[in-house]
Design brief:
9-stranded mixed beta sheet, single chain, 7-stranded mixed beta sheet, 355 residues
């Protein structure tokens, strides 16, 4: 049997490619309930989750976790939320992530190896050597460079704290996933009005000098791993050496296995498309804690709607043009997170990459 494991990533997380391009480490950040942004407002608690939808699952495969259900379906009663979560995962399962070191593996040593990693970073257009600041086609949208580059907006020379790769990383890391297989690409771009629109980066209080780095930014990162076997294994080992867990996932009758790794605040999907620009991405300030020497909080630049003054001109491209109807996920739809109906129409909450 051959099937495709589809991966979806979104929320407060950083993608860090290795220098040889053979691995991408995904760091899910820990944001406690009392975390405050530089304007002294509390940042909504983000909950790191792994949600799998499959035909069947063996191992640790909870489908009716009350905490996860009421977080994802905060507008529903407890019983209705549990039913919604169970329907969303099908024959899969749902994990809350804490101190988790995650990997995706072949189930049996006799199974063919999973394919090597391919990072989609060769389809972004340019003019006279200057990269376009928005994608104009669905293919161009897939370039991973649309994920906001933290190092490009850091107000000082930021160096990644390599302790994030240690067996026991700093407390800012809630969970970590190692991607060593398949294709990794940008799945969706932030929706700001009806057309594809860049963002710019400046201090939350509007003071200081904005960064010259200005472009459309990703809200979801996608992955696809072709599995030449009957199933695939998701492994959660613990930073502290504690008891881990596994899910062994087999595809459903349509040959599908879908996996969402998210780190988002609770929200209720908007009843209709937002007309006002989304709020600035306050949570972006937390990413600077990954630096060896984090800059002062008030100096940290965050994404705000619209291109920076003096940015290159860009075409008028309808947002739906680069997000065709084929971009559909049964899992994300059941979680009420399919592109075009999520929190991103209200607040910029993008992942980032380093470098």
């Amino acid at each position: 049997m051959t099937f495709v494991l589809k991966l979806f990533f979104s929320g407060l997380m950083a993608f860090i490619p290795s220098q040889d391009g053979q691995e991408v480490t995904v760091l899910l950040l820990n944001v406690p309930h009392d975390y405050q942004s530089s304007d002294s407002t509390s940042l909504a608690h983000h909950k790191p989750l792994l949600i799998a939808r499959a035909g069947s699952c063996s191992g640790d495969c909870p489908t009716r976790d009350a905490d996860i259900a009421q977080f994802l379906y905060a507008d529903q009663s407890e019983s209705a939320a549990l039913d919604s979560l169970e329907a969303a995962v099908g024959g899969g399962g749902a994990w809350e992530l804490s101190g988790s070191d995650l990997s995706i593996r072949k189930t049996s040593t006799n199974d063919p190896d999973l394919p090597a990693l391919v990072i989609r970073n060769d389809v972004r257009g340019s003019v006279n050597g200057v990269p376009n600041i928005i994608p104009t086609t669905s293919a161009e949208r897939e370039d991973l460079s649309w994920v906001a580059g933290l190092q490009k907006v850091c107000p000082v020379a930021c160096t990644l704290n390599t302790d994030v790769f240690d067996a026991q990383p700093p407390s800012i890391v809630a969970a970590r996933l190692h991607l060593r297989s398949g294709k990794v690409f940008t799945y969706s771009i932030a929706r700001i009005g009806s057309n594809v629109t860049p963002v710019h980066f400046e201090q939350l209080d509007g003071q200081g000098t904005p960064s010259s780095y200005s472009q459309a930014i990703a809200t979801w990162v996608g992955g696809e791993i072709e599995v030449s076997a009957d199933d695939v294994e998701i492994v959660d080992e613990k930073f502290n050496g504690g008891t881990g867990r596994t899910m062994t996932l087999a595809p459903d009758s349509n040959g599908k296995v879908e996996l969402a790794v998210i780190n988002l605040p609770p929200f209720v999907p908007p009843s209709s498309a937002a007309t006002a620009p989304p709020d600035p991405g306050k949570h972006f300030e937390a990413y600077y804690e990954l630096a060896e020497t984090p800059p002062s909080q008030g100096s940290r630049l965050v994404p705000k709607p619209g291109a920076v003054s003096g940015a290159p001109s860009y075409d008028e491209v309808d947002w739906h043009t680069i997000h065709p109807t084929g971009l559909w996920s049964d899992l994300l739809n059941a979680l009420r997170m399919n592109i075009g109906r999520t929190v991103y129409e209200q607040t910029l909450c993008p992942p980032t990459t380093w470098p």
